[in-house]
Write the structure tokens for this entry.
Amino acid sequence: MPAIGKTRWAIPEGYIPSESISQHRALLSHETACILNAGERDAKIRLSVFFADREPVHYRVSVPARRTLHLRFNDLKDPEPVPLDTDYASVFESDVPIVVQHTRLDSRRAEIALLSTVAYGED
Amino acid sequence: MPAIGKTRWAIPEGYIPSESISQHRALLSHETACILNAGERDAKIRLSVFFADREPVHYRVSVPARRTLHLRFNDLKDPEPVPLDTDYASVFESDVPIVVQHTRLDSRRAEIALLSTVAYGED
Amino acid sequence: MPAIGKTRWAIPEGYIPSESISQHRALLSHETACILNAGERDAKIRLSVFFADREPVHYRVSVPARRTLHLRFNDLKDPEPVPLDTDYASVFESDVPIVVQHTRLDSRRAEIALLSTVAYGED
Amino acid sequence: MPAIGKTRWAIPEGYIPSESISQHRALLSHETACILNAGERDAKIRLSVFFADREPVHYRVSVPARRTLHLRFNDLKDPEPVPLDTDYASVFESDVPIVVQHTRLDSRRAEIALLSTVAYGED
């Protein structure tokens, strides 16, 4: 399949609640960037996390050709974890076209709440 | 009405929970791709489902002229059902312009949670 | 302010649940198309509602200059109400640029669920 | 990083419920415009709030270079607070490219509900 998407994506909203009713991974409060690389070349991505009051932090992510990666911000460790209960934003810069969608599952209360949106993309 | 939309659409997020409090079809946990074909020609669509660790699977879908189809991924059977509790993504390739919106109803808990976003479209 | 937006908008997802825990208008299950006309000319809009198995139905809506209208599909009466518990989709055609966002409040259960997305726009 | 985004953004949906189960700031019903300024120049933004039946009200907001601001509409005071339980819409006009995402947390009931969408952007 020919590649689909854009090479730069932005998600202005980011917030990982520290509270969760459940400790089961599927129901733990989390923020996800779902990345689709539908094309025939592996994607090398620089992920930058922005904050309200300090300089951005950069991460490296890769997604093989014809694969999707549902990346949890909670799982980022290197160079540092994303702080909890803190407003952030993110930008993805890829060497091939990708598509990015933002999803949060919030389980601070007994019931879960969900939000999702396709990110803002441009080349 | 002249056609509206794009011929290629991507939804990076996909996940069908196996759990549901209710077995009533309207309240069963499900993922939907709402497809609108507002134009005057029937749409023949190839739907490709992408995974984290294996090759994509392809399906065929059609939407008549001036009709909408709210397609549940749960209902896809041929060549194989979409696995539950598994991250996936999807791409729609149509021979005429369409518009695609992604919605999930999650009823793993007693109350439902909803998410929705217009997919990423391009020609 | 110069006008902002597009003249054609599509919302592939539409579904008004017949059930509601609450009969209070703010908490009644409803589907809304939020329309913003930020420009200096009144907007005359043709709204077409599409179904899975019958021809579309057309409505007329107007939004004054520099105003927003949060239109509930539940409130449409002429030429006919939008049926409950039925999949539909919608297209907005305006004579001036507008912006359209889709929101649903679902109160079939004791707690509410929300979804929202900016619609698909083009000229 | 080169700037990413657009200079004009619209959010047709806006509504701040007056009710909240919790008075804790994180769980108080609120509407947020998450603004990302990924570029190297500070952003000066004019925010216009539109209503159903009166003239728009204008606010001033700024976001430093390489920072994100998660702006709560509830916090706007000058020239006047945004009224509760009232339909509104908003437009952001920036002197440099930004990206805007709209999020609402609704805690009128015991459990929270969330919605989010990237706003409509153009230059």
